[in-house]
Amino acid sequence: MKVTVVGAGGNVGSTVVDVLAQRDICKEIVAVDIEKKDGDKTFYPSKGRGLDQWESAPVHLFDTRIKGTVDYADTAGSDVCVITAGVPRRPGMSRDDLLEINANIVSSVSKELAKHSPDTIIIVVSNPLDVMVQVAKEASGLPYEKVMGMAGILDTARYRAFIADELDVSPKDIQALLMGGHGDTMVPLPRFTTLSGMPITHFIDEDRLDEIVERAKKGGGEIVGLMGTSAWYAPGAAAAQMVEAILLDQNRIFPVCAHIDGQYGIDDLYIGVPVKLGTGGVKEVIEVDLNEKEQDLLEESAKAVRSTLDDFRKLMNK
Description:
Layout: E1 2-6, H1 11-23, E2 28-32, E3 36-38, E4 41-43, H2 45-54, H3 57-60, E5 65-69, E6 80-83, H4 95-116, E7 121-124, H5 129-140, E8 147-149, H6 152-167, E9 174-175, E10 178-179, E11 187-188, E12 194-195, E13 198-199, H7 206-217, H8 219-227, H9 233-247, E14 252-260, E15 269-278, E16 281-285, H10 292-316
C-alpha cells in the first residue's frame, strides 16, 4: 500500500510520515513539499526529512520506504493522501487572507493528487479545516466518502488527555465524543464520555468538566501560546490513526469531518460527526440521539461553518 503526505517538509506532515513509518503498515510513503529558496541556495525540506526518517529505519525496525519529492508524479497510485500543506495565520494577516491563501493551496494540491491517483482517499488537516475539506472535495472531484478532514480525533485526544491528568488515570481507558466544527464551536458531549465504561460524570462534577471542555476547545491556542507556533505531534498522530484505519479496514468509530446530508437535520455540509472508517473511506455516518441542548449546539456550530464557507465563496467570486 502507498500513502502520500503533502506538506511533509513541515512539522505536522513530517510527524504523519514518522508515525506511519514506525507502524510499518504500508509499503511506501511519498513525502511531498515545495522547494525553499534562501538567497542563491535551494533547499528541499521533504527530501531532507524523508531521508533522515528513512535512515532511522534500522533503529526503529521498519521496512516502509520513504521517498521525499517535489514531483506529484511520484504520488501516482496512492491509496491514501494526507494534506497538511498551508500557512498559519501570521501577525497582520486577516482571516480572509488566511482563507484565500490556504484554499488556493489545498485546491491546487487536491487536483494534483486526484490527477495521479484517481481512486485515492484524501484526508485534509489544513485550516480552516471544515472549509478546506469542502475545497478538497470540489477540486478533486472524488466521492464524498473519499474526502474527509482530521479534527475530531485531535480534539477528543486533547479532551481525554486532560481528563487523564485530572483523575490520574490512563488515557487508554477514556472514551469520548465531540462533534461540530473544529475549534471554538465544537460540541461537547459529556454524557458520551466514559472511563472504562463508567460515565465520566461519576468522577468529575459538571462545572469542572465544563472547564476541561473549554480547555480542549482552545487546545491549539494553548500550544501556540507556549511555543509560538502550532502543534504537530498530536495532529500528526491523529491523521496517521485515520490512515491506519483505512489501510487496515479496521472499521474504527472516529469523530471525523465528514459530509452529511440530512443526518442530524443538517443538509449538505462537512462537519465533525462520528463515522465508521475503513476501506473506501467513510463507510457510515453514525447518528446518535442528541438531547435538545446538544442538538442546538450542533446547529449553532453548523451555522458557524456555513458562515465561513459563505465567506470563502464570496472571496473566490470577488
